[in-house]
């Protein structure tokens, strides 16, 4: 009788663990799908075009895809800090936040908590922002099956400022061999290098850039991260 009772307890416990795991997996899948396809506020693109009049509607839609890629990087990192690498995407994010109720609802559906705005940045001596940039680069590359350690092209989020000739934007090249960092001021911005994200030359480390021992592969493809869940920071 005791053995039967223990068996029932074990089976019940295992079943509960499996059920909770499946429920969490479904929730993560639903959150990611919402980030990719959730509706944005009406009028959002018009506000962006007031700041960047040369943008067309299709341009704004592509920039919105860049913002979704940023949100995905945050989500797939387990809601760790990610820094914004694009000025024009940052402008769209800021305009989105001004739709207070809509932005809060989007964040709750996507992450389970409010995502606060952080200014756009580039690699510098600031280790905290560097960590966030490396993390953003890693997951944006993984999203597009780009090798983050040896990129041959840029993920969308890192290419938009240059593509749309954004004044004071951040212009990236995947491979900077033959490109002098100081001297090409087309559009008012010097080029930054995708290959620099795996280098420790800026701050003496590569914090935020996953290592192979973390279970993240440096080859194209690979794991997408753990996701956020319902908590928050």
Which tags fit this structure?
233 residues, mainly alpha, disordered C terminus
Would you write up a description of this structure?
- With 233 residues, this protein is mainly alpha-helical.
- It is 48% helix and 3% strand.
- The chain is built from seven helices and two strands, in the order αααααααββ.
- The chain has a two-stranded parallel ribbon.
- α2 (44-51) packs across α4, α3 (57-76) packs across α4 and α3 runs antiparallel to α7.
- It starts with a helix and ends in a 40-residue tail after the last strand.
Sequence-ordered SSE layout with sheet pairings:
Elements: H1 2-37, H2 44-51, H3 57-76, H4 87-98, H5 100-110, H6 127-143, H7 156-163, E1 171-173, E2 191-193
Parallel strand pairs: 1-2
Helix pairs in contact: 2-4, 3-4, 3-6, 3-7
> How many E strands?
2
> What is the global morphology?
globular
Number of helices: 7
Strand order of the largest sheet: 1-2
Taking all residues together, what is the mean pLDDT?
Answer: 81
Contiguous low-pLDDT stretches (5 residues minimum) are 212-227, 229-233
Helix content: 40-55%
Total domain modules: 1
For the sheet with most strands, the description reads: 2 strands, parallel
Radius of gyration: 20 Å
> Could you state the order of secondary-structure elements as H and E?
HHHHHHHEE
Structural class: mainly alpha
**Gap from first CA to last CA:** 48 Å
Percentage of residues in strands:
under 5%
């Amino acid at each position: 009788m005791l053995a039967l009772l223990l068996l029932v307890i074990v089976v019940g416990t295992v079943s509960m663990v499996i059920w909770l795991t499946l429920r969490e997996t479904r929730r993560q899948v639903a959150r990611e799908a919402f980030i990719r396809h959730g509706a944005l506020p009406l009028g959002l693109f018009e506000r962006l075009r007031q700041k960047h009049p040369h943008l067309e509607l299709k341009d704004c839609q592509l920039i919105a895809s860049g913002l979704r890629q940023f949100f995905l990087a945050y989500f797939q990192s387990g809601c760790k800090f990610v820094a914004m690498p694009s000025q024009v995407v940052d402008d769209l994010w800021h305009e989105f936040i001004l739709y207070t109720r809509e932005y809060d609802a989007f964040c709750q559906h996507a992450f389970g908590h409010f995502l606060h705005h952080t200014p756009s940045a580039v690699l510098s001596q600031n280790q905290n922002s560097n960590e966030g940039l490396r993390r953003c680069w890693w997951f944006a590359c993984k999203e597009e099956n780009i090798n983050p350690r040896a990129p041959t092209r840029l993920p969308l989020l890192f290419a938009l400022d240059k593509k749309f000739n954004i004044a004071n934007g951040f212009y990236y090249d995947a491979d900077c061999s033959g490109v002098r960092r100081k001297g090409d001021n087309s559009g008012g911005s010097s080029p930054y290098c995708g290959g620099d994200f795996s280098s420790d030359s800026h701050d003496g480390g590569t914090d935020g850039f996953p290592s192979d021992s973390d279970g993240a592969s440096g080859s194209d493809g690979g794991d997408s991260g753990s996701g956020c869940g319902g908590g928050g920071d």
